[in-house]
Write a structure and sequence with these properties.
The protein is built from 14 helices and 29 strands. It has 553 residues and is an alpha+beta fold. An eight-stranded antiparallel sheet has the order 11-10-16-7-8-15-12-13, with helices on one face. The longest helix has 15 residues, at 345-359. The structure holds guanosine-5'-diphosphate (GDP) and magnesium ion. Keywords: GTP-binding, Hydrolase, Membrane, Mitochondrion, Mitochondrion inner membrane, Nucleotide-binding, Protein biosynthesis. It is found in: Mitochondrion inner membrane.
């Protein structure tokens, strides 16, 4: 395939603006998949993606397209939109020369539209603005064109107006990809230089590395070296993603595809690594700056005998999602486990759900916390969240972009939901790291009949300790089953109790008359529940109770 007939591009957008739907139409138009009614977010392969209707993992597909007698190879990378997954986006962009920036014709520019535009702009990629959903009754493509011109300085006549759902004008998107995005700048005569920009794990074949070839050629049977580990491997298989793996004899510079070479684990398949031929060593490519976790939580097997299984599940999943950091940890109450770092709360939930669905694991997650540096010694929504305003830009008459400095722990848990409900769904939100600041923080314990619950220890701001402590106690009271004695649920800072709830005694169900089958059902449910119980002092706490308290702090 001549390099000048190759285009590598990505689709970026705010959540729900229609990336995956546009990808479906592009796959259909190029005959990559058959046109049927059932093509809905074809590239969202994971169960968690289908259930939540969001993309969490970037996917690659190679499309063949004929235009004016020439055949083109278009490598499309579909990316997630949610703020927690912007790391996936920035990695995908390193394999591209251009992006389709999809904007909803009704909602207009949103927070991740801006964030994704700047990721593409900084990577010096061509940006093709695509205004989607023009079929909607409330669509106002002219207003969105003006926003794009004002905020991104892209002339409004460069915008392509489409309906990805109905397929309207989608062909002109392919035309623009060919005309406006340059072919990759590569050298096929030079020795091989391949960037590993993503990888997945297959139970039977080991690591499947997604690679972008900057120089040279790679074939089955070649001896290659990982610049990162300096280990040598023999290439077992190369191919393109169509969007499923399709083996080919070779991959050439300019192409995006996959490579299998007997790599077995995370350490061997570093994302950002450069692969080269054993005979012809080269300078490695720049790679990626590593993802910076923002939210930390402990993860433990429900049953310690599951430790090794969970360990291997976590290893495989982190191979698939390299932005998660993993450190061994242990807890008095929960035994051996790990401390995991995530990019945000949705990321944490998705990781947990994938462990359960794809690896059948059953885990306990502790309260998420954000990193603090401790020095040992003795208006809105916005004000309550201890924020400082930095600037304000009007996007048009009825939309404004605000920048604030926030303490991270104020935004990781429920800020996004509060913002959405306060603004009746109109506001959107994105964030980046602004460094550490000093603050008055205290460590808060939660006690059950005087015994500390390890899982619920948190660091909170002094002024908020009382209200947070009270909320946790109340929630714990609601989610704990009653037991044969009274339970005191307390929040404490050091030896000072700052909140208390009391869970009354459990009355044996046989004391009430009534239907025997109903009683038997209750007893059976209790027995099942027991399997997942953990004892703190004399108090039995089901796993469910932890999760209920942790999720909605
Ligand atoms: P993504 O999060 O950017 O990948 O967005 P999706 O492709 O999953 O689309 C989000 C929702 O918008 C889905 O319910 C789609 O059916 C819908 N959608 C996408 N494109 C269009 C369009 O052109 N018109 C209309 N009316 N709905 C669309
Ligand atoms: Mg999607």
């Amino acid at each position: 395939f001549p390099v000048e007939n190759i285009r590598n591009f990505s689709i970026v957008a705010h959540v729900d603006h229609g990336k995956s739907t546009l990808a479906d139409r592009l796959l259909e138009l190029t005959g990559t998949i058959d046109k049927t009614e059932n093509n809905k977010q074809v590239l969202d392969k994971l169960q968690v993606e289908r259930e939540r209707g969001i993309t969490v993992k970037a996917q690659t597909a190679s499309l063949f397209y004929n235009c004016e007698g020439k055949q083109y190879l278009l490598n499309l990378i579909d990316t997630p939109g949610h703020v927690d997954f912007s790391y996936e986006v920035s990695r995908s962009l390193s394999a591209c020369q251009g992006v389709l920036l999809v904007v909803d014709a009704n909602e207009g520019i949103q927070a991740q539209t801006v964030a994704n535009f700047f990721l593409a702009f900084e990577a010096q990629l061509s940006v093709i603005p695509v205004i989607n959903k023009i079929d909607l009754k409330n669509a106002d493509p002219e207003r969105v064109e003006n926003q794009i011109e004002k905020v991104f300085d892209i002339p409004s006549d460069e915008c392509i107006k489409i309906s990805a759902k109905l397929g309207t004008n989608v062909e002109s998107v392919l035309q623009a990809v060919i005309e406006r995005i340059p072919p990759p700048k590569v050298h096929r005569k030079n020795p091989l230089r391949a960037l590993v920009f993503d990888s997945t794990f297959d139970q039977y074949r080991g690591v499947i590395a997604n690679v972008a070839l900057f120089d040279g050629v790679v074939s089955k049977g070649d001896k290659i070296v990982s610049a990162h580990t300096q280990k040598t491997y023999e290439v077992n298989e190369v191919g393109v993603l169509n969007p499923n793996e399709q083996p080919t004899h070779k991959l050439y510079a300019g192409q995006v595809g996959y490579l299998i070479a007997g790599m077995k684990n995370v350490i061997e398949a570093q994302i950002g690594d450069t692969l080269y031929l054993h005979k012809q060593p080269v300078e490695p490519l720049p790679g990626f700056k590593s993802a910076k976790p923002m939210v930390f939580a402990g993860m433990y097997p429900v049953d310690q005998s599951e430790y090794n299984n969970l360990k291997s599940a976590i290893e495989k999943l982190t191979l698939n999602d390299s932005s998660v950091t993993v450190h061994r940890d242990s807890s008095l109450a929960l035994g051996a486990g790990w401390r995991l770092g995530f990019l945000g709360l949705l990321h944490m939930e998705v990781f947990n759900q994938r462990l359960e669905q794809e690896y059948n694991a059953s885990v306990i997650l502790t309260t998420p916390t954000v990193p603090y540096k401790a020095v040992l010694s003795s208006s809105k929504l916005i004000k309550a969240r201890r924020a400082v305003q930095k600037n304000m830009i009007f996007i048009d008459q009825n939309r404004v972009m605000l920048k604030y400095l926030f303490p991270l722990n104020e935004i990781v848990v429920d800020f996004y939901d509060s913002l959405k409900s306060l603004s009746s769904g109109y506001a959107s939100f994105d964030y980046e790291d602004a460094g550490y600041q000093t603050a008055e923080l205290v460590k808060m314990d939660i006690l059950l009949n005087g015994n500390t619950v390890e899982e619920l220890v948190t660091v909170v701001h002094k002024d908020k300790a009382h209200s947070i402590g009270k909320a946790i106690c109340e929630r714990l009271k609601d989610s704990l089953p009653r037991q044969l004695f009274e339970i005191a649920i307390q929040a404490a800072i050091g030896s000072k109790i700052i909140a208390r709830e009391t869970l009354p005694i459990f009355k044996n169900i046989f004391q009430y008359g009534g239907d025997i089958t109903r009683k038997m059902k209750l007893l059976k449910r209790q027995a099942e529940g027991k399997k997942k119980l953990r004892k703190i002092g004399n108090v039995e706490v089901p796993k469910d109770a932890f999760i209920k308290v942790l999720k909605t702090r």
